[in-house]
Amino acid sequence: MTAVDPAVMAGQFAGRAPYSDLIDQFRQLVGQRLGKLALEILDQKLSGEDANKMVGKAEFGTPSAFYIRREKSALKRLAYEFAQQTGDPAFLRLVNRAFAAQSATVAKRQQATAAR
User: Are 39 and 48 in contact (CB under 8 A)?
Assistant: First the structure.
């Protein structure tokens, strides 16, 4: 399990220190609702790593690419829900930024599939 200090993770984004408590709260929520793999994916995302590198790795329970994508989607939904509950538009933008790359990838795949 990758242990990443939330204060370090918060420092990678605009807003930095004020969000470390929110990140702690969100990490706890992820662990409770989605489990260990989703928490690992979140840690990967927040540390700037590609969660797809977790595919097939024994230390993460050898998840498939499909399972990683499914967990990312669940994580994204929970992140939006949590960000909206905070009532903080800056934090919601932080969440949007954290998942922007995934959204772009999904959009490209959908376009490629539709073009077939």
Answer: no
The answer, yes or no, to whether residue 5 has pLDDT greater than 80, is no
Cβ pair 98, 46 in contact under 8 A? yes
Q: What is the pTM of this model?
A: 0.65
| Torsion angle defined by CA atoms of residues 104, 89, 23 and 97, in that order, rounded to the nearest 10 degrees | 20
What is the rounded distance in angstroms from the CA atom of residue 29 to the CA atom of residue 58?
A: 24
Opening angle at CA 79, ends 77 and 81, nearest 5: 70
Helix (H) or strand (E) holding 37, with range, is: helix 36-46
Indicate whether 109 pLDDT > 80.
Answer: no
Taking the mean position of all CA atoms in its chain, how far away is CA 79?
A: 8
Cα(first)–Cα(last) distance of the chain, in Å?
40
Q: What is the pLDDT of residues 42-57, one digit of tens each?
A: 888 888 888 888 888 8
